[in-house]
Specification:
Order of helices and strands: EHEEEHHEHEHHEHEHHEHEHEHEHEEHHH
Distance between the termini: 18 Å
Helix content: 40-55%
Structural class: alpha/beta
Number of strands: 14
Largest sheet: 8 strands, mixed
Strand content: 15-25%
Shape: globular
Radius of gyration: 22 Å
Bound molecules: adenosine-5'-diphosphate, 6-O-phosphono-beta-D-fructofuranose
Length: 448
């Protein structure tokens, strides 16, 4: 079997204990355990501009994966990553056209960086390779590779939602973006809604391409094992002791406006107001590592959350009780898994999300004899398969408040019954089945 060449903007540092928070890196890490793989992308480093910038590819092999990365200049990082990818495509794909900060010159830098990726990847390719490109940073990369003469099978997977065409066309070059997708042999999205939206776009623009659904998952066995084994970890013990038997709620999200965090904190505030019996008793840990911290909307969100957490703690806290424990740094995954297991409820309330792996991780981490309750937004990609969770509308803070009360007072039988309904899907659709199904489709597409 040939090599699998994975390309994504974010490539995890192969030896880092604190992996970056983000579904793409987590799912791919879990999926690339077999076969020979090359993973190409940005190193995470920025360098100063130089005349005729031509970055060197740095290579690092760990087990079956060779990591090949390049640095970006400050200007590339700004135009390609911060502005076009995260200031234009990200809000648009999350149905937030109003947050889009459009400027034509960023489009040029985006295209140039995609062409740079293609040029740097080309000499690393070998006969028999299958290429799998990931996410919105790299929509035009397939076409850029084809323009350099690459004939290998190329697939593309979008980890985030794709909006209806009526919204997507707010992007001036939306037509061109869809036309460039003809370079791909297989195009994968997370949900039926996303695939339908993209296919509608294809037929309106007159593009011969077809998007299919390949839902992503986690590695549930290893996550469940980590959750259980980690309970004896001194840091997990420390958390447990600090809870002193109080009901424990957890939230784990990158600091991103798609995650519905201000709405969630408002829901928690209403919960404390409306159900005073929980005051002084409940502990809510919100782990929210700063993400894309230089993009203005993300900076503003951080200020808003700092303020909301401070206000809630100031209003409802007491000298021996803090209503919210709010962290803006990542937590090692092994600890996170056991934190989930200790939690009586998890709040996963995005306004819009491609899939949301945290929802699946929380289910996998539970003790089946005494599982916690998942509170889940209707607008997570995971929602259609997880309706046994307590489903909420994340825009409605009252709904979140009532769901919290219901979760913390739910009879044991109902908690177990809900978890029994959630569990099979988390084990059926995994990171491995996702990758296997996509790669199989890619193999077949070329034979067809
Ligand atoms: P996204 O890709 O938008 O960040 P997902 O929920 O799909 O959202 O994936 C997030 C991944 O990042 C999960 O695997 C989660 O465990 C991890 N993660 C999120 N927040 C943290 C954190 N604070 N510390 C460590 N890992 C985190
Ligand atoms: O899954 C969506 C995603 O944008 C990934 O592409 C990305 O790696 C992750 O979220 C985290 O974002 P970033 O790479 O910008 O830190």
């Amino acid at each position: 079997m040939g090599r699998l060449v994975v390309v994504s903007n974010r490539v995890p540092a192969p030896r880092d204990r604190l992996q970056p928070a983000g579904g793409l890196a987590v799912a791919l890490r879990a999926a690339l355990k077999e076969g020979s793989c090359l993973w190409f992308g940005w190193s995470g480093q920025q360098v100063s501009e130089k005349e005729g910038h031509d970055p060197e590819v740095s290579l690092d092999k760990v087990e079956n994966v060779t990591y090949a990365t390049i640095d970006l200049t400050h200007a590339e990082y700004d135009g390609f990553y911060q502005k076009y990818s995260n200031g234009i495509l990200w809000p648009l794909c999350h149905y937030r056209a109003g947050l889009m900060d459009y400027d034509r010159k960023d489009r040029v830098i985006y295209q140039n960086v995609n062409e740079l990726f293609a040029r740097k990847l080309l000499p690393l390719l070998q006969p028999g390779d299958q290429i799998w490109i990931h996410d919105y940073h790299l929509f035009p990369l397939g076409q850029a590779l084809r323009d350099l003469g690459v004939t290998a099978p190329i697939g593309f997977f979008l980890h985030i939602p794709f909006p209806p065409w009526s919204l997507m066309r707010a992007l001036p070059e939306a037509d061109a973006l869809l036309r460039a997708m003809q370079a791909y042999d297989v195009i994968g999205l997370q949900t039926e809604d996303d695939a339908r939206n993209m296919n509608d776009g294809f037929s309106i623009v007159g593009v011969k391409a077809r998007a299919e659904v390949f839902p992503i998952g986690i590695d549930p066995d290893s996550f469940a094992k980590q959750a259980e084994e980690g309970l004896s970890n001194p840091d997990v013990q420390r958390l447990k002791e600090s809870l002193r038997g109080k009901p424990f709620i957890i939230g784990v999200d990158r600091l991103d406006y798609s995650k519905g965090l201000p709405e969630r904190l408002k829901g928690y505030e209403i919960f404390l107001e409306r159900y005073p019996e929980h005051r002084g008793k409940v502990v809510y840990l919100q782990v929210t590592p700063v993400s894309r911290g230089n993009v203005p909307e993300y900076r503003a969100l951080r200020r808003e959350l700092d303020e909301a957490a401070g206000r809630i703690n100031g209003t409802y806290g007491d000298f021996d009780w803090t209503p919210i424990r709010y962290l803006t740094h990542p937590v090692p995954r092994a600890l996170l898994a056991s934190f989930y297991r200790l939690a009586d409820a998890a709040l996963v309330t995005p306004l819009r999300d491609g899939m949301n792996l945290v929802a699946k991780e929380y289910v996998a981490a539970q003790d089946k004899a005494n599982p916690g309750v998942l509170i889940l937004s209707h607008f997570a990609g995971a929602a259609p398969d997880m309706e046994a969770a307590l489903m909420v509308n994340p825009h409605d803070a009252d709904d979140i408040a009532d769901a919290l009360h219901k979760a913390l007072t739910m009879p044991d039988g109902e908690r177990r019954a809900r978890w029994d309904h959630l569990e099979p899907d988390v084990w059926r659709v995994t990171a491995l089945t996702w990758a296997r199904d996509f790669i199989q489709a890619l193999g077949k597409a070329r034979l067809a």
